[in-house]
Every structure is written in C-alpha cells, then in structure tokens.
Fold this sequence. Notes:
CATH 2.40.50.100; 12 helices; elongated
Amino acid sequence: MATEVKVPALGESITSGIIAAWNVKDGDYVEKDQVLYELETDKITSEGLAEVAGVISLSAAEGDEVEIGAVIASIDESADAPQKSENSDTKEDAKAEPSEEKTESASEKKSDAVSPAVRRIAEEEKIDPAKVEGTGKDGRVTKGDMLKAGSSRMPAEEEKKPAASAPAPAKPASSGERTTRKRMTPLRAKIAERLVAAQQEAAMLTTFNEVDMSAVMGLRKKYQDAFVKKNGVKLGFMSLFVKAVVNALKEVPGLNAQIDGNEIVQNHFYDIGIAVSTPKGLMVPVVRDCDQLGLAGIEKSIIEYANKAREGKIGIDDLSGGVFTITNGGIFGSMLSTPILNAPQSGILGMHTIQERPVAIDGKVEIRPMMYLAVSYDHRIVDGKEAVTFLVKVKQALEDPARLLLEV
C-alpha cells in the first residue's frame, strides 16, 4: 500500500511553491513525522512531514515548481523497516557498552535529519550537527542551534588554524565563467513585485525628522537590570518605538487607514509589522494589539518572530493584517533612507543608526546621540500635515518617555 505525499494548502493566496530541498533520497526508509522536504512559496518556507512510515519514492526534484495538492512522492507502507544491529536486540546490551557501530548510526541518523540550511552552516563553519544539542521537534538541530554553536566556540579554535589559511582572492565559480545565473526564489520575486507595485500604485512621499535618544538610552540604562530580572528579556529600542507609534496613530488616525477601491478603511486596532531580515529576504511579522501589550510583551513577541523567521518557521497568519510597519535600517549602519510602503498600509516608519552629533540645546552646543527618522506615507489618503504631526508625536514620545505612560 502506497501513501501519496501531496503539497498541503498553506493559505488562500498561495497556489504553488518550489521544492527548495529534499531531506531524504529516493528509496530511503522514512519514519512517521520525519521532515521530508522544504517548500518555498512567495510568502513563507514550510516543511513537509511524512504521514506514515515506509520507503519513499520521489516524483519531483529540487527546484521544481509544484501546485498546491500536487503529488510529489509516495511512501510504500508495506516495505520492511531496516533491520537493527544485533547489538541492540536487548536493553541489557545497550546499557552494557555502546558499540562504535551504534554511535555512528545515531550520528548519521541525526545528520540525515538536518535541513539544508543546517548542512550549509556545518560545511562553512566546520561544525558537526551530531555534536550540537537540538531544540527543534524531536531534538532536531535547527539553524539557530548551529548559529549559536558557531558563536560560542572558543577563540582557541581559531588560533589552531594555520597562518596560511588567510582569505584567498575571490575566484570565478568555474574556469572562464565570469557570471552565474540562478532562478529567483518565489519569496524574492514576490518581494520585488510588491515593492514595485507599492511605488506605482501609491502616491508615496517621505518626511524626515531627528530624535534625541538621550532619554531613551538613559531609561534603558537605569532600569535594564530590573527589567531583565522581572521579565527575562532585555528592554530594547524597538518596543519603545512601537509604543511611540501606537501613541502617534491614536493622535493621527489617518495613518491607521488604507484605501480599498473607492473606500477608505479606518482601522481601530494596532497590529504593528516589524521588518525582519532573513537569509531568504525581508519578512514583516505582525505584533498583535500593541496598544494592549506592555514593553515586555512586545519584546518577547519580536524575539519569538525573529527566531521563527530565521529558522524558516514563519506562517501566513504571522505576516497578515498589519496596519503600520516599522523597519530598522540602523542595525546595518544606515544613516538615512526612504522606506517603501508595505501595501495596503498607508505608512511606514524608518529607524536609522544612532550617531553622536553636536546639537543646540538651550543656546549651547552639546554632543547628543541622534537618530534620523523617516516616515513614508500614501499621499492619496494622508496629508502632509498629518504625516509631519505623526512624526513629531513619535519624536516627542521618545525624547520624553513619560508621554508613553500618559498617552499624550
């Protein structure tokens, strides 16, 4: 009896995807709930699990574009499972002294279960996934586990490398080849499509201001230890910016609206999208009901989404329904930018790097940590006065954090 492996439905707007990687080979014996493949769509990357145990026969290859509901493999349930080694017949033998053969097979099994992202990091960083403690389902090693293992290695490991291992000049992919081509992933293609559409369909304009971050930085420094002790997470800048945006949206509701055909849809909730950079492209998971969350709740949501995004576990629901977006180019060193709208939203706030600059304070020149802010907005629905007022409200809340508590 053979069970078909079909591409599952992932959301109403997703009709197809590309098989990014097979985690098993044709003819392999697979266990129930084992990860078989990674499917990349225009919104998310998801994993496909085996519904039954048996020998798998692949009918689609890596890189193939497949429709939702398509059969990409079959599993023969009648096939016998691989015979176990004689040394594992009894528990007593297993407890007595594990053989090298058993240790090796366990290691190989753990290695076979890892994703392509984990294998890539293993090759680049020379880390054996079998020696990394996995935090994924059934103890699987995730990309986050590998990155953590790589960052925690002792500096002594670097010292052991021979001096001759200095970086070599970049070389072409192959002899005589000056360029290479690869197919654009569905996610990257969708990002490109949405960015171009946002610029073509909206009357997009950007206004700028700058904010003195002294008060926010002083607040974090004063209360960071107590905040971490109570909540288990650090107080970051992003949660304070989210609260400042929510406060400003309440004062200027025009930026919490969107155009739908010939109608203006006014939102009365505050689900804020936080742009997160991942190896596969930019994603914007949405933190729900930010007006009802405290700073700790927002920080925990952001951390959870960031981890899910980097491990490829973001779902459609995580990306849907935001009313406003915040993007932080400052973490990459950006001093100033004009962020593009995340349609159909009418506004997006761009944060930038903090730099100490001389500014005039009460007639005196002082060195202050300053950040440029940019808000891009849809001029079809938001007037310049509203956009400027919104940005001033954000600036005031950050320069005087007490305003966030009083909502003024």
